[in-house]
Amino acid sequence: MSASLPFFRYHPDPLASGSIRAASETCACCKGNRGWIYTATFYTAQDVSGRLCPWCIADGSAAERFAGEFTDAYGLDGVSEEVLHEVTRRTPGFHAWQDPHWLVHCQDAAAFVGEVGYAELAAHPEALDQLRADMRTAGWHDESQLEHFLVNLGEGATAMLFRCTVCGTYLAYADAS
Ligand SMILES: [Zn+2]
Ligand SMILES: [Zn+2]
């Protein structure tokens, strides 16, 4: 069934991430009931009476109609205007404690894979190394405290895992409540 869903380059499996779910629900934008509904963030100053279908996200009509964005542009540095537009206005966001944001690699936005704990993160050592380096830069100077935080990811704090759309490298950022 999911084969009929629109494809999102920067969020290729929104069913796995829980951003899109099967639901018999009327879309606030096209008023259609397509059997799938978007469940995560949408930032708009307007009143939106209901949730949105994946098709109105994919073609940009929901973002245009409600002058909204699914994701903040924060972190999307060094990408083209087209990519910025596609990620913020034509890509499903995701559930996070803090405002969700996208990671960049190879001067392109990375594809969101999902929320993961330590075990899944450790399956991609390059993502774990990069997160460790980012956290040191962010001020985590106590190595044992840092490792304690990392191995406990999945309980309270989680990691948001991405995969570079160009070179395939995995990368992540930590999300805490
Ligand atoms: Zn719709
Ligand atoms: Zn890359």
TrEMBL record:
InterPro entries: UPF0167 (IPR005363). It comes from the Bacteria. Pfam families: UPF0167. Belongs to the UPF0167 family. This is CbrC family protein. It comes from Streptomyces corchorusii. The lineage of its organism: Bacteria, Bacillati, Actinomycetota, Actinomycetes, Kitasatosporales.
